[in-house]
Amino acid sequence: MQIHKIVKQVGIPEFVWRESVERHDVVQDEFDGICFHRVTKKVGPLEKGSVVTPDGILFDFPRIARIMHLQNGIGKAYTKPFYVEEKVDGYNTRIACIQGRILAFSRGAYVCPFSTDRIVDFLDIKKIFNDNPELIICGEFAGPDNPYNIEHLPYVKEDVRFFTFDLMMMNKPNSLPIKERYRIFDSYNMPTVRRFGLFAPSDISKLKKIIQELNETGCEGILIKPTDPDEKTLKYVTLGSCIRDIHVTAPLLPEMQPDFFTHRIIRAAMYIHEHVHTLEPEIFTQLGDALLKPLHKSVDKATKKEVIEEQFLLRFHEEKNIQRMIDHLYKCRVKCDILSQEKKGIYWHVTFAKKCYASYEILQKHLDGTSHVD
């Protein structure tokens, strides 16, 4: 079906679509011969991150509101029972069948060559999409050997795993009802995030025990998913998650938006106030180490004229996807080099170095004595 006819089904006239393409609010893209359009700025009902393909539309995965106080946040948001799942620290991916090919789309609507290459390890994709050709599987890739996140789950020690947490349908903006999602997950043995079960708004003490256990074991937090369609999904994270976020991002503090750190420090303070109640000296030490130690290392590297870099290992089935991944990262304005490439068993093992020039250049100017107004 022509793209104009597809977008017309969601109320976007052809002239509006053409103007959006001319303004680059919509960008045409391609992966291995399959053409699609990435929505980079809202067009009609299509939010940034939506994908328009010859087979239909993948609506964006919605942003999830956050609560900072568990008890009061739940009390304000819910009157009916809700399900609780683990919030996994990884990167969001939508899996869909487009023109007979299984593709993994990032939140930004790019096809990720790495995720597309590896999804066959985790899902019975042939059976799933033969039975449900318009299904969109939403999940998280997580683990130490991934191209986007330095932080990873404590129980994934190497490589990556895929955790399904939601299901959508082509051309429809909303998720399937949660009971239907769970039925499909189980019928195809999809790997999912941990599901803690059904809770009432009054079950705060049970939820606090779950949060405490997640914090103590180095996990990120929870997602709260309502049974009532009029109530919304919420997320809540642990103290440890806030400190780890600061730690892995502090080396690049010179180029980061200040809000990134401000938000996490506020979350940490709120968590301590509700769950810990007192500021223990070890918390000061953890936060200081997380923020200052990595930045000090970056200053030391800049002093030695060493570019700040992040190294990561990826495993690929197909050798051609290695270059596709390099091209994808450059398209996303990430500069990286291949340090090593070797076939081991069924995978190509490739070590990448992601170059962080912006932080290096900012620190170099400070070290050289350049003045600035702040």
What can you see in these coordinates?
With 374 residues, this protein is of the alpha+beta class. Among the domains are: 1-60, Nuclear Transport Factor 2, Chain: A (Roll), CATH 3.10.450.740; 240-303, Methane Monooxygenase Hydroxylase, Chain G, domain 1 (Up-down Bundle), CATH 1.20.58.2250. Helices cover 36% and strands 26% of the residues. Helix 8 (239-249) packs antiparallel against helix 9 and helix 8 runs parallel beside helix 10. The radius of gyration is 22 Å and the shape is globular. The termini are far apart.
- Rounded mean pLDDT is 95
Number of helices: 12
CATH topology of one domain: Methane Monooxygenase Hydroxylase, Chain G, domain 1
Q: Which parts are unreliable, with pLDDT below 50 for 5 consecutive residues or more?
A: none
Radius of gyration: 22 Å
Question: How would you summarize what this structure contains?
Answer:
This protein has 374 residues and is α+β, with helices and mostly antiparallel strands. It is 36% helix and 26% strand.
